[in-house]
Structure to design on (467 residues):
C-alpha cells in the first residue's frame, strides 16, 4: 500500500531556493514539487494534507555532532539515543551523526558495535556514526578502510584530553595518510591538550578552582596553535580536514588562511559559541559549571568573527556538540576542582530555533540558515541529497516552521533529559510546528506522534566536497 501526503501553501526554503510550493510525498520520499496554485500542484492528491500557509517548509535539520550516552569523566551523557533523538525531533532535526568511541587497547569494530547496540531500535529519527579513533596502530588503520565500506566515513581525533582520547602528531599523521588513500574525512578536536594540562595544574595549585578557570586555562591561542598544526599535518598527508567546534577568532583565522591557500579544510562552530560567552562561565554559586564544554566559551568579542566566518564560508557547518550532563549530581562532580566538571552542553533541541533567531537578527539569510544546518552537513558527511534538501527523490524529512511564533527557552519546557537549559529565559522568534521523518509525522502541531525505533541507521558516502 502506497501512502501519500501533500504539504500545501508554504514557502519552501532550501540552501539554493525559496519558492511558494506544494510538496507531494509518496512512500517516505519527496515525489514532486509544484508552485502553489498551479494546475500541477492542484493535481497532487493524497490521503493526508498538511496546510502550511504562512509557514516555512524546510528540510529537517542534520546535526553532525552529537554525543548520546557518551562516557566522560566517570559519568555518562544524560541523554540516551531514545531521549536525545526525540528532543532532536522536537527541535526540527531529523538526522543526527553521533560518535562511536574506540577505547585504547580495543578495536574500532568493538567501539562501533557498542554504539550500534546503544542506538538500534531506540531512535525517533535517523542516525549515522562517526568513529572516534583513540588508538592508532596498524590494525586500526586497516579497520578504517572496512568502516568506510560500511558507511562510517569520518574519523575523529583529539589533540586534547591526554590519557583519554589524545593522539600525538605521529598518530594523527598516520590516520590522515590513511584517510588520504581511502577517502575518509578526519575530524579534529584542535586544542593543545599537553599544554592545557600544565595550565590546569598550575591554576589548581593557586587555588583557582571555580568553573570560570576552565575557560582561562584552555587558551584561545592553544586552540589556534592546534588548528594550525592539524592543518599542516593534513597538508603533509594530502588529506582533507574538518575542525570541530571552532570557538576562537584566532582559530577561524587559521582556517581562513588555509582555505585561501586552496586546502581542503573545513570548520564547524556551535550555537553556544555564537550566543554564550565567558560571562556564563563566570556565573556565581557554581552556576558557571553548566557552561563547561571544550573548546570553552570565549569572551563575547569572538562572536562577531564566528558570524563573519559563517557568512564568508570560512566556517561551513553549525552543529551542537550535544553532550548533556545534569547540574545536580553530574556537573557537581567538579565542585572544588573545575577540571572534574564533565565537559558538555545540551543543545540538540535548540539549534534550528537559535539559527532562525540569527536570521531575524540579521546575522545570516534564510537560505544560509538551511545551508549551515541542513544541506552542508549532509554534503560534508555523505548524506546528500537523501538528507538536507527538499527535492524529488530525497527522504521526506521536512519541517513546517512558524517564523512568527515566539517562545522562551527553558528547562521547564524542553525535551532533553537534562535539568537545566543553557539558554534559560532566552526569547526567540520562530518555532517548529510539524516534523516529518521519512514521510512519517513525528511532531504534529506541537504534539509528539513519533515512536521509538522509527529512526534507522543511515550509511554514508564520503565527503561530497572532495574530488
Amino acid at each position: 500500500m502506497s501512502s501519500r501526503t501533500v504539504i500545501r501553501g508554504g514557502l519552501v526554503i532550501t540552501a539554493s531556493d525559496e519558492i511558494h510550493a506544494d510538496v507531494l510525498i509518496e512512500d517516505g520520499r519527496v515525489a514532486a514539487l509544484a508552485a502553489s496554485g498551479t494546475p500541477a500542484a492542484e493535481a497532487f492528491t493524497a490521503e493526508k494534507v498538511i496546510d502550511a500557509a504562512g509557514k516555512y517548509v524546510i528540510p529537517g535539520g542534520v546535526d553532525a555532532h552529537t554525543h548520546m550516552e557518551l562516557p566522560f569523566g566517570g559519568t555518562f551523557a544524560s541523554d540516551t539515543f531514545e531521549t536525545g533523538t526525540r528532543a532532536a525531533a522536537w527541535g526540527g532535526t531529523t538526522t543526527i551523526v553521533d560518535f562511536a568511541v574506540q577505547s585504547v587497547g580495543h578495536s574500532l569494530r568493538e567501539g562501533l558495535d557498542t554504539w550500534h547496540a546503544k542506538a538500534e531500535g531506540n531512535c525517533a529519527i535517523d542516525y549515522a556514526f562517526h568513529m572516534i579513533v583513540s588508538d592508532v596502530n596498524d590494525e586500526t588503520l586497516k579497520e578504517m578502510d572496512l568502516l568506510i565500506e560500511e558507511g562510517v566515513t569520518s574519523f575523529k581525533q583529539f589533540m586534547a584530553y591526554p590519557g583519554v582520547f589524545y593522539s600525538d602528531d605521529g598518530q594523527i599523521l598516520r590516520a590522515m595518510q590513511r584517510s588520504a588513500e581511502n577517502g575518509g574525512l578526519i575530524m579534529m578536536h584542535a586544542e593543545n591538550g599537553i599544554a592545557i594540562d600544565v595550565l590546569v595544574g598550575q591554576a589548581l595549585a593557586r587555588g583557582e578552582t571555580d568553573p570560570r578557570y576552565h575557560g582561562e586555562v584552555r587558551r584561545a591561542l592553544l586552540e589556534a596553535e592546534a588548528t594550525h598544526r592539524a592543518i599542516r599535518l593534513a597538508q603533509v598527508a594530502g588529506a582533507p580536514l574538518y575542525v570541530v567546534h571552532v570557538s576562537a577568532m584566532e582559530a577561524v583565522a587559521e582556517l581562513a588562511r588555509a582555505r585561501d591557500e586552496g586546502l581542503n579544510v573545513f570548520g564547524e562552530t556551535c550555537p553556544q559559541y555564537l550566543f554564550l560567552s565567558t560571562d556564563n562561565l563566570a556565573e556565581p554559586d557554581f552556576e558557571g559549571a553548566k557552561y563547561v564544554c571544550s573548546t570553552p566559551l570565549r569572551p563575547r568579542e569572538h562572536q562577531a568573527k564566528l558570524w563573519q566566518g559563517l557568512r564568508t564560508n570560512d566556517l561551513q557547518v553549525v552543529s551542537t556538540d550535544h553532550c548533556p550532563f545534569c547540574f545536580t549530581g553530574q556537573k557537581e562532580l567538579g565542585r572544588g576542582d573545575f577540571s572534574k566538571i564533565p565537559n558538555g552542553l545540551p543543545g540538540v533541541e535548540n539549534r534550528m530555533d537559535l539559527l532562525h533567531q540569527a536570521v531575524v537578527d540579521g546575522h545570516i539569510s534564510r537560505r544560509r540558515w538551511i545551508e549551515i544546518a541542513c544541506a552542508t552537513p549532509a554534503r560534508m558527511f555523505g548524506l546528500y541529497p537523501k538528507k538536507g534538501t527538499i527535492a524529488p527523490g530525497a527522504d521526506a524529512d521536512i519541517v513546517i516552521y512558524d517564523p512568527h511564533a515566539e517562545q522562551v527557552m527553558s528547562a521547564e519546557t524542553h525535551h532533553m533529559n537534562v535539568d537545566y537549559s543553557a539558554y534559560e529565559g532566552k526569547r526567540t522568534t520562530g518555532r517548529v510546528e510539524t516534523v516529518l521523518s521519512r514521510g512519517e509525522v513525528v511532531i504534529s502541531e506541537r504534539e509528539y506522534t513519533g515512536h521509538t525505533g522509527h529512526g534507522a541507521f543511515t550509511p554514508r558516502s564520503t565527503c561530497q566536497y572532495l574530488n
Q: What stands out?
A: Residues 51 and 126 are 25 Å apart (CA to CA). The two ends are 41 Å apart (CA to CA).
